[in-house]
Design brief:
The chain has a domain at about 230-380: Peroxisomal Thiolase, Chain A, domain 1 (3-Layer(aba) Sandwich), CATH 3.40.47. The protein is about 35% helix and about 20% strand. The chain contains eleven helices and 13 strands. It has helices at about 25-40, 45-50, 60-65, 75-80, 100-115, 140-150, 165-175, 275-295, 310-325, 335-340, 345-355, and strands at about 10-15, 20-25, 70-75, 125-130, 155, 180-190, 210-215, 230-240, 245-250, 270, 300-305, 365-370, 375-380. Bound molecules: coenzyme A.
C-alpha cells in the first residue's frame, strides 16, 4: 500500500543474534554419508527386495554449486552431525527457565533497541514472526515481552519464510492505527529443529539465526537518521499469498489424533525445489515490480535489494527480472554463503549487515518469499 497520505513509519533499529556454532558443507556431507551408509546397510534386505529405495549419499560440491550455501550456523552442532541422531540436542527446559526462542530473541532485540535509542520499557508491542514456534501457548512473544520488561501486547505469527515481512506489515498497521507506539518484530528461527538432515535433497538448506527490528512512527522516533545505521522510512509494504503444497511441513497438534501413521519425513520440512524455483521467481518479480509501481519508484532507482536468502540463482533471476540484468553483490547482497537459508530472518540479516554504506535518500527493497506461497516486500528510504 502506498503511504503518501498515511502516518509515516520508520525502521529505527535492527539486531542480529548469530549462534556460536557453525557447520561446513564438508562436515554436513560427511555425517550424512555415514548415516546413509548405515541406513542402507540396515535396510539391505528391503532394498534388495525392491520394497525400499536406497538412500543417496550427498556431494559436498553439489551443495554450493546448486544453492550458494557454504556453511550454516546452528544452535547445537553435535546432535546434527551425529549420524545416529541427525537433529540438534536442545534439552527440555523447565517452566521456570527462559525458553530457547525467547533466549535467542533478547540479544537481537537489545541491539535493535540500542540503534533506535530506546529502552525495553519504551516497547509496547512485540511480534514474534517465524517458521516454527516451540509450543502452542503461551505465545513466545509474551514470554519475550515479559523477559524484556516491555508493556502493551504481544503475539506470535507464522507465514514461514515471509514471517518477518508479514510481521513488519502488522507493526506498520499497529503504528498507523495507534494501537502501539514502539513495536519490536523478532524472528527466532531454529530451522535446525525442522530441517530434514536425513535426506540429501534437504539436509544442506537451512541455518539458525534471530533478527529483530524496531518500528516507530517517524515523528516520534528518537533516531534522527544521522547515526551509522541510519533511520529507514517505510514507503510501502505489500503482501501476497497463493496456495501451494510445494513447500510443506505437516507437523502439528493433530498428528496425535490422526488414524494413519505419518511418514516422519512429512513432519519436517520438505519441498519440490525445482517447482518452487520455477513458480516463485516469476511471482516475486511481478510482486516487486508491481509494488515499486504503486509507490512511483522505477526499479533502476532502487539502490539495494535485500532479498530472501534461499538460493543464489533464484535471487539473481529475481533481480534480473526486476532490473533487466544480473545485479552485483552491492545491489543484491548475499549472506546465504555464511548463514544458509535462515527462513524469515534471511532478508533482515542482509538488511542488518548491508545498509550502513547507503546515503540519505537511497531507496531499497526488503523482500521475502517462501512456503504458502507467500511474498512480502517493504520499500524503504534512508532518512
Ligand atoms: N548432494 C548431491 N546430490 C544432490 C544433493 C546433494 N546434497 N541434493 C540433491 N541432489 C541431487 C538430486 O537428488 C537430483 O538428482 P537426480 O537428478 O538424480 O534426481 C539432482 O541433485 C538435482 O536436484 P535438484 O533438486 O533438481 O537440484 P536443483 O538444481 O533444483 O537445486 C535446490 C536444489 C533445493 C538448491 C533448488 O531447487 C532450490 O533452491 N529451490 C528453491 C528453494 C527454496 O527457495 N525453497 C524455499 C524454502 S523456504
Amino acid at each position: 500500500m502506498a503511504s503518501a497520505s498515511l502516518t509515516r513509519v520508520s525502521i529505527t533499529g535492527t539486531g542480529l543474534f548469530t549462534p556460536a556454532e557453525s557447520i561446513s558443507n564438508a562436515e554436513l556431507a560427511a555425517s550424512l554419508t555415514a548415516s546413509v551408509e548405515k541406513w542402507n546397510a540396515d535396510h539391505a534386505d528391503e532394498i534388495a527386495a525392491g520394497t525400499l529405495a536406497a538412500r543417496d549419499v550427498p556431494d559436498e560440491a553439489f551443495i554450493e554449486k546448486a544453492s550458494g550455501i557454504a556453511s550454516r550456523f546452528v544452535m547445537e552442532k553435535s546432535g546434527v552431525l551425529d549420524p545416529d541422531r541427525m537433529r540438534p540436542h536442545l534439552p527440555t527446559r523447565s517452566e521456570d527457565e527462559l525458553g530457547v526462542q525467547a533466549e535467542m530473541s533478547l540479544p537481537a532485540i537489545h541491539e535493535a533497541l540500542e540503534q533506535a535509542g530506546r529502552k525495553p520499557s519504551d516497547v509496547d508491542a512485540v511480534i514474534v514472526g517465524c517458521s516454527n514456534l516451540q509450543r502452542a501457548y503461551p505465545a513466545v512473544a509474551i514470554e519475550v515481552q515479559d523477559a524484556l520488561g516491555a508493556g502493551g501486547w504481544a503475539f506470535d505469527m507464522n507465514v514461514a519464510c515471509s514471517s518477518a515481512t508479514f510481521s513488519i506489515q502488522n507493526a506498520v498497521d499497529a503504528l498507523r492505527n495507534g494501537t502501539a507506539s514502539c513495536v519490536v518484530v523478532v524472528n527466532p528461527e531454529i530451522t535446525s529443529g525442522h530441517n530434514n538432515f536425513e535426506l540429501r535433497d534437504h539436509h544442506f538448506i537451512f541455518g539458525d539465526a534471530c533478527t529483530a527490528l524496531v518500528l516507530e512512527r517517524t515523528d516520534d522516533a528518537v533516531n534522527d537518521g544521522s547515526g551509522e545505521h541510519g533511520r529507514w522510512d517505510v514507503l510501502g509494504t505489500k503482501l501476497a499469498t497463493q496456495f501451494s503444497n510445494n513447500i510443506r511441513n505437516d507437523f502439528g497438534f493433530l498428528n496425535e489424533s490422526e488414524d494413519e501413521a505419518r511418514d516422519p519425513h512429512e513432519l519436517v520440512f520438505r519441498q519440490n525445489g525445482q517447482s518452487v524455483f520455477k513458480e516463485v521467481c516469476p511471482l516475486v518479480v511481478r510482486h516487486i515490480t508491481g509494488h515499486l509501481g504503486e509507490v512511483d519508484v522505477e526499479p533502476t532507482d532502487v539502490r539495494r535489494f535485500w532479498l530472501h536468502q534461499a538460493n543464489l540463482k533464484m535471487n539473481q533471476l529475481i533481480a534480473k527480472g526486476v532490473l533487466g540484468r544480473i545485479p552485483d553483490e552491492d545491489e543484491a547482497p548475499v549472506i546465504l554463503d555464511e548463514y544458509a537459508n535462515t527462513s524469515s530472518a534471511g532478508s533482515v540479516i542482509a538488511f542488518h549487515k548491508h545498509r550502513d554504506d547507503l546515503s540519505s535518500g537511497d531507496l531499497g527493497v526488503i523482500c521475502s518469499f517462501g512456503a504458502g506461497y507467500s511474498v512480502g516486500s517493504v520499500i524503504v528510504q534512508r532518512a
